[in-house]
Amino acid sequence: MFALLSFIFLLIVFIYIKSPRLSENEPPLVPYTIPVIGHTYSYLFDTENFIRKCLKKYGEPFNIVIFGKVTTIVAQKYIPEVLKAHESFDAFEVFKEFVPLHLILDYDPFKVIGFHAKTIREQISGKLSFHFDNMQKDILYCLDKWIGECDKPRNIKDIWDLTNHVIGKSIANACIGEEASQHEDVVHTFAILTQDMNHYFFLPPFLSFIHQKLHEYVISIPFLIGLSPISKHKNILINRMKPIVETRIQQKKSLGNSYKPSNDILEYYMSQSDFDSSNVNYSYLADLLIFLIVASIATTGRTMANLLFDYASRPEYWDELYEEASTINKECNGKLTFNDINKMIKLDSFTRESLRHMGDMFIAPHAVIADHYTFSNGYTIPKGRNVFDFSEDCLFSESKYGSDSKSFKPFQFVPQNISASKVDRTYVVFGGGRHACPGRFYAVLMMKLFLYNIILKYNVKTENDGVAKKVMLGPFTNPPKESLIFERRKEQRIEMN
Hints:
The chain is α+β, with helices and mostly antiparallel strands.
């Protein structure tokens, strides 16, 4: 009896400690029944209906309690406001709660976010014309390797794994050069490193009911006690980088001003003022690359897989897309250029529409890093508060996309000639404002090149000749798990550049 009373007493104390305490003039808190648990169940298993009911009753912003923590929800009206308030919000403060790289890498990547953004902006998106030919070659190489000629229909499983390897090879080329990206272990590392980590990081944050930091540390334990899947990938990166770095250092010494730098990120790292050629810190270089891999590969691979499923699921649009692609292919004699891909406005519109339908309810959560933040309607939230953007409210805005906003309308952007990489108030798949994803130009170009080559080389359809359904994981999605059926297109063959 004493033990039972003690347990009840401790439970009451815990509930009291964890009871939400709101500051003055906060957004309304949606009522809930179960202490601590709050709205977690509705958030995970009935996300859209739950959020829309709250929006209808309370307006925006409003507060809910998920995993024992008060979280502020914004939608179409206030998402642009949050995205523009650069000094008050930081997306990576939320990211690190679920992917605590600062605890498992030797160097904290979140302390140099500005450097990572600059790297991607200048060395990836800023050099698309330099990367273009290699991107094209890498895509064709992967299609031959993973899909083949398909003279007879071939069933291909795990499309997301395929697209991860396609983007993995291309990003490896852009990061550490064409020589290193020829090694299969390097491509494999770029392709699956994030997936290996996600086996640990996608543990539901139930320990956050006690304290958020407890969840961060618990999911980091396997990495800290030597069970880290990162170690083998990091060793591969170091082993493949080392001879390249040593060769370049030697060439710089012997050639002096005649040295011709490479157009890859490794060269950029070596050009930094803190790079010590006499004592190269390979662990640091590998950690920089690992962060770029985690931040880019899985998300781009996922959107590429979704794009392919969207195409394969909708045969009514195949002829128009093929006609546009084959016309451009004939005009350039099979030697596609950077300018040629930009002429395909239907392909671009299809890509933008696929991204609009990616399926995630929340895309770019932010945390308040200022002492507080006051919305334009007067509501105030404190430092440390997570703000989740109900992005679907923007992406399916009826005022922007019509009463049938949830319909897949692949060519609706053709008359507007709006690039798939251009962000606006209702197209927030890449965030928005000054901190919109700096790699979106590369990602969109990669997606279009990938689908362009698929269209010219194969006929693709779903197993059941219907629209493939994405896999819902709470408020987020993964690409469909079903296979796609590929068969070589007879009308035309594409040449490798």
